[in-house]
């Protein structure tokens, strides 16, 4: 299931503005990698290049290489739709489809891609909701609108929707920033369970969260506003938080700036 | 604390001295009394604004109620007869009472149906292009053209179709020719309202679909259009209501007939606005005037019914909480 991501010297642009510069890193399969760093340093932008969501924005483009195992994600023959089917994404704000029921939300990825078999869908919906720790809470109201759930439940619904298409990698862009502490805890527990199956990359503003959930942590920073963001270092989470090799990382971790 | 006191002029009698504002921030009794005056001023403004709004509301209601009252009081009793809903005006002269409006009701519905059949797909596809795909010059040019089209007077649209359809192609005036002119009037309404509705669909939903590996066109059809569905229906109905009562294109392109006529492509064509116009010609006769008001009321009822149907459709297709 899970695959490794290799990024080599990636530059990310918005039109002519270079937002992220020279990122190279390896994301290990079946692990959680956290991106931390001050606002505007390009963590989310970089995350969105990993499943080619960045190019959805007008003027968005990249230079460099992103490899998923041995596939070049930015090869001219590569279809971005296929990439996104392989690398799923959970967003900052829960965004269930408002016109759809809980069941339809989870089944959306499959249905919109042509899966019609009711039995298959039933099975995947149940296993995905179980996988997202939401099944017991919603199993009696699968036909109710997804937008009627609480924020934390909606976010778990979005995770269920993302894992229902059985991706190799799951990207999470600050998945807890709109949630209360209890829902956050539920999501963090879930991330811990999901990493046995998926490669997970999570952007977070919360350093404690990075320390709690991730195996490896990447620190991004930028020299000044208007300058491109850079990857300062990536290492085991315990090392980043206890004994980072870069001074900037230590300053950020210890709260001296940011 | 000091920043606040610095701004106060010491000679201003309305400013309480520092002794009445104990350190720690809680204002003293004098300060509280001072706070009463902007509060009162705000109340006065509130009342004035309320009065103005209510007045404007009633002012806007006057013509509406007046029209409804006039039309209902003068035309309602003809609608009570079965003949009105089943018959036509054949062999009924201006000084004969009653007759039927079935021919004109059917004609109007048929013509407007044809108009919607052509204008709605064009309008919705244009709006989808403008919101979801269009970038740069072409989109700007189309958007500008739609703006111009929405400003075209109906008689000009009718003359244009006349020039193309009758003068250039040598085809005869007909219900269909009038429907073509109505299409020109309806397209900009549908484009603009659909565009607004599509813009209201949050971008997060598009991104959510893309992130599931859903192709863009499926996202547009199944997520964006689906989410905006009830708004689009409302826009389409506004467009239909807009063209249903149009008379200028009918005067030029679809001459009235008192008979049943179900052929949209050949010959004269009966419609409610033209029936109203016909009887208006003999307004001095009580029989014709009565028929005119009844036809007007029938037209209003048709528009109302369409609105109700649209609302029901929109309700069942709307976003549920």
UniProtKB/TrEMBL annotation, chain A:
InterPro entries reported in the protein's UniProt record: AAA+_ATPase, ABC_transporter-like_ATP-bd, ABC_transporter-like_CS, P-loop_NTPase, PstB-like
ABC transporter domain residues: 5-247
Record's keyword terms, sorted: ATP-binding, Cell membrane, Membrane, Nucleotide-binding, Phosphate transport, Translocase, Transport
Statement: the UniProt record of this protein carries the keyword Cytoplasm: no
GO MF, one annotated term: phosphate transmembrane transporter activity
SUPFAM superfamilies xrefs: P-loop containing nucleoside triphosphate hydrolases
Keyword Membrane: yes
Gene Ontology CC annotation, any one: plasma membrane
Membrane-topology descriptor: Peripheral membrane protein
Task of the protein: Part of the ABC transporter complex PstSACB involved in phosphate import. Responsible for energy coupling to the transport system.
The protein, known as: Phosphate ABC transporter ATP-binding protein (PhoT family)
Organism: Humibacillus xanthopallidus
Automatic annotation (TrEMBL), chain B:
Extent of the signal sequence: none
Pfam families (alphabetical): BPD_transp_1
Regions crossing the membrane: 47-72, 111-131, 143-165, 171-191, 223-244, 292-316
A GO cellular component annotation in the UniProt record: plasma membrane
GO MF annotations, alphabetized: phosphate transmembrane transporter activity
Gene3D superfamilies according to UniProt: MetI-like
Keyword Transport in annotation: yes
Keyword rRNA-binding: no
Composition skew (Basic and acidic residues), residue ranges: 1-12
Alphabetical keyword list: Cell membrane, Membrane, Phosphate transport, Transmembrane, Transmembrane helix, Transport
Main localization category: membrane
Compartments (UniProt record): Cell membrane
Listed InterPro entries: MetI-like, MetI-like_sf, Phosphate_PstA, Phosphate_transprt_permease
Chain residue ranges for the region called Disordered: 1-37
Gene Ontology biological-process entries: phosphate ion transmembrane transport
Membrane topology listed for this record: Multi-pass membrane protein
Domain (ABC transmembrane type-1) ranges: 105-310
Family that this chain belongs to: Belongs to the binding-protein-dependent transport system permease family. CysTW subfamily.
NCBIfam families per the UniProt record, alphabetical: 3a0107s02c
Its job: Part of the binding-protein-dependent transport system for phosphate; probably responsible for the translocation of the substrate across the membrane.
Name of the protein this chain belongs to: Phosphate transport system permease protein PstA
Source organism per UniProt: Humibacillus xanthopallidus
């Amino acid at each position: 299931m899970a695959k490794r991501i290799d990024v080599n010297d990636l530059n990310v642009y918005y039109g002519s503005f270079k937002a992220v510069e020279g990122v190279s890193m390896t994301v290990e399969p079946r692990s959680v990698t956290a991106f931390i760093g001050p606002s505007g340093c390009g963590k989310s932008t970089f995350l969105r290049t990993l499943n080619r969501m960045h190019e959805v924005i007008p003027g968005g483009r990249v230079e460099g290489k992103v490899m998923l195992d041995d596939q070049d994600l930015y090869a001219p023959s590569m279809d971005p739709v296929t990439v996104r089917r392989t690398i799923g994404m959970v967003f900052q704000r829960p965004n269930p489809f408002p016109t759809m029921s809980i069941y339809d939300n989870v089944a959306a990825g499959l249905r919109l891609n042509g899966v019609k078999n009711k039995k298959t869908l039933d099975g995947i919906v149940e296993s995905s909701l179980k996988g997202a720790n939401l099944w017991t809470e919603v199993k009696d109201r699968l036909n109710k609108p997804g937008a009627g759930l609480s924020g934390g439940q909606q976010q778990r619904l979005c995770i269920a929707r993302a894992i229902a298409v059985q991706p190799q990698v799951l990207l999470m862009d600050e998945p807890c920033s709109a949630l209360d502490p209890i829902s956050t805890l539920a999501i963090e527990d879930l991330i811990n369970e999901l990493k046995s199956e998926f490669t997970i990359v999570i952007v977070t503003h919360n350093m404690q969260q990075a320390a709690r959930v991730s195996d490896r942590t990447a620190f991004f920073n930028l020299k000044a506003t208007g300058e491109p963001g850079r990857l300062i270092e990536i290492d085991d989470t315990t090392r980043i938080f206890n004994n980072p090799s870069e001074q900037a990382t230590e300053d950020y971790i210890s709260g001296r700036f940011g | 604390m000091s920043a606040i006191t610095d701004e106060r002029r010491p000679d201003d009698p309305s400013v309480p001295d520092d002794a009445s504002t104990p350190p720690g921030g809680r204002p003293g009794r004098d300060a509280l009394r001072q706070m009463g005056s902007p509060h009162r001023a705000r109340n006065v403004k509130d009342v004035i604004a309320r009065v103005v709004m209510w007045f404007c509301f009633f002012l806007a209601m006057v013509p509406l109620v007046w029209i409804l009252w006039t039309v209902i009081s003068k035309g309602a009793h003809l609608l009570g007869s079965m003949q009105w809903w089943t018959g036509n005006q054949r062999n009924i002269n201006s000084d004969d009472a009653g007759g039927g409006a079935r021919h004109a009701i059917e004609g109007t519905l048929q013509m407007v149906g044809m108009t919607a059949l052509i204008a709605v797909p064009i309008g919705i596809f244009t709006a989808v292009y403008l919101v979801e795909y269009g970038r740069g010059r072409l989109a700007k040019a189309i958007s500008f053209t739609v703006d111009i089209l929405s400003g075209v007077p109906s008689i000009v649209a009718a003359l244009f179709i006349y020039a193309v359809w009758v003068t250039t192609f040598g085809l005869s005036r007909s219900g269909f020719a009038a429907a073509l002119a109505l299409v020109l009037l309806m397209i900009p309404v549908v484009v603009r309202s659909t565009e607004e509705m599509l813009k209201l669909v949050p971008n997060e939903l598009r991104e959510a679909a893309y992130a599931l590996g859903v192709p863009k066109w499926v996202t547009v059809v199944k997520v964006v259009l689906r989410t905006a569905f009830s708004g689009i229906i409302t826009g389409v109905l506004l467009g239909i209501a807009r063209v249903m009562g149009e008379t200028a294109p009918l005067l030029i392109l679809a001459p009235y007939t008192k008979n049943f006529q179900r052929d949209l492509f050949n010959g004269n064509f009966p419609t409610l606005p033209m029936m109203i116009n016909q009887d208006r010609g003999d307004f001095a006769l009580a029989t014709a005037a009565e028929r005119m008001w009844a036809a007007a009321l029938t037209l209003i009822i048709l528009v109302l019914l369409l609105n109700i149907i649209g609302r029901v459709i929109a309700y069942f297709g709307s976003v549920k909480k």
